Amino acid sequence: MHKNLIGGQWVDGRAERINLNPSDTNDQIGVYAQASAEDTLVAIDAAEAAQPIWASLSLQQRADALEFIGTEILSRQTELGTLLAREEGKILPEAVGEVVRAGQIFKFFAGEILRPQGEHLDSVRSGIEVDIVRQPVGVIGIIAPWNFPIAIPAWKIAPALAYGNAVVFKPADLVPGSAWALAEIISRAGLPDGTFNLLMGRGSVVGQSMVESPKVKAISFTGSADTGRRILTTAAPRLAKLQMEMGGSNPLVILNDADLDLAVDVAVQGAYFSTGQRCTASSRFIIEKGIYSRFTAAVQEKLQSLVVGHALDPQSTIGPVADKAQFELNLRDIKATRAEGARLAFGGEALTRETPGYFMSPALFVDAEPGMRIAQEEFFGPIACAIPAVDYEHALQLANDSSYGLSAGICTNSLKYATDFKRKVQSGMVMVNTPTAGVDYHVPFGGTKGSSYGSREQGRYAAEFYTTVKTAYTRY
């Protein structure tokens, strides 16, 4: 059994979970320990004791530790990518790409350790100087989702450690394998015992204990909006620092002047790759009326060429849905959308393959109305809808008609409309002639409205969450 890492020791759980392959449910990946609330409190105490020790190490020692982690991840990218594909369902090239990104993130923050930020200023008062420095927050609770089981943990854990914090990490219960492999690498990087802790288990047990503990000074969460609101109501009253990414209903606007082939490629990649299981996936195609019929027909033609199959089959372009519960939810959402009146133009069916798994054909609804659930809520699967727009201004209005605001895109050859869209669309990230899903690790990630709460993730902007600013005055 794969154990939890608490205070530098591998510890048995009070229960266990069997990890199955969604491409082949006969394939058992492993058995993983389930932590209890008591285990969580022990890990938090260990992190609190270790944090000042870790923060007191030299910049070079901390940088070397993160460099070691990043280097090993990259050296094992095929092995770790295969594990990720087996447990989450991404096709192997996507899974290996995610592993590479995780390694790059650790290397980026290894470099950031050696570039500490601060300022030395003269005071407005004579004979006084001012120093402004960033210091670690303390113990960071990290709660990660299942759709990016190594990249999202990496972009939370790496900056937390880089800035001198200790970590208590709870991965998604669905995908413990990638998290355990990452934790095993971190356990050999020379961190003081307790600096990093892995607690696999239920969110209602492990996550709740982390959120309630006054020793956990900050919580970084990625997941559903409902869970995010519950975390907020529990942790905010005790003044915990919070950073939450909670999904999106992301628009992709297609204008009449768009390059049709490029627009179709952008739409299909953004909506359907990774089985649509990305918070930045395009779920709403908002199409100017002059290109509407040609675009929707071309998307259907492109979807016909995609191959849904086993994540490790080199012929597959789309893997399975991650688990049975999500698979059944997707099928219910498709049925409900048809009942609302949108026309299912392509896909949306359960598929049978050589191995038992959760396979479904990518679904495209056309002639959807902006008030329909599919146009307002996050459907976390290979499902998208097409909504007609009268003109650019109407398309922009429809794009902003959402309680979410994570990522938005536009396909156009007009500099005027592209510039206007970048300024006026209500989202944290904007893509012009490129998929809404697919971001870099060295720049900020995050949204507006109901998509995000707190400061941005990734790049140098991560320092806003993982550090606190201290201002010191000295008379000379």
Automatic annotation (TrEMBL):
Keywords from UniProt, A to Z, are: Oxidoreductase
Database matches in InterPro entries: Ald_DH/histidinol_DH, Ald_DH_C, Ald_DH_CS_CYS, Ald_DH_N, Aldehyde_DH_dom
SUPFAM superfamilies with a match to the protein in the record: ALDH-like
Which molecular function term from Gene Ontology is one that the record holds? oxidoreductase activity, acting on the aldehyde or oxo group of donors, NAD or NADP as acceptor
The cross-references to Pfam families, in alphabetical order and at most eight, read: Aldedh (PF00171)
Q: Which residues form the Aldehyde dehydrogenase domain?
A: 10-471
Q: Which Gene3D superfamilies match?
A: Aldehyde Dehydrogenase, Chain A, domain 1, Aldehyde Dehydrogenase, Chain A, domain 2
Identify the PROSITE patterns for this entry: ALDEHYDE_DEHYDR_CYS (PS00070)
Q: Specify the domain of life of the species encoding this protein.
A: Bacteria
Regarding protein family, the annotation reads: Belongs to the aldehyde dehydrogenase family.
User: What PANTHER family does the record tag this protein with?
Assistant: ALDEHYDE DEHYDROGENASE-RELATED
- UniProt name for this protein: Aldehyde dehydrogenase (NAD+)
What phylogenetic lineage does the species belong to?
Bacteria, Pseudomonadati, Pseudomonadota, Gammaproteobacteria, Oceanospirillales
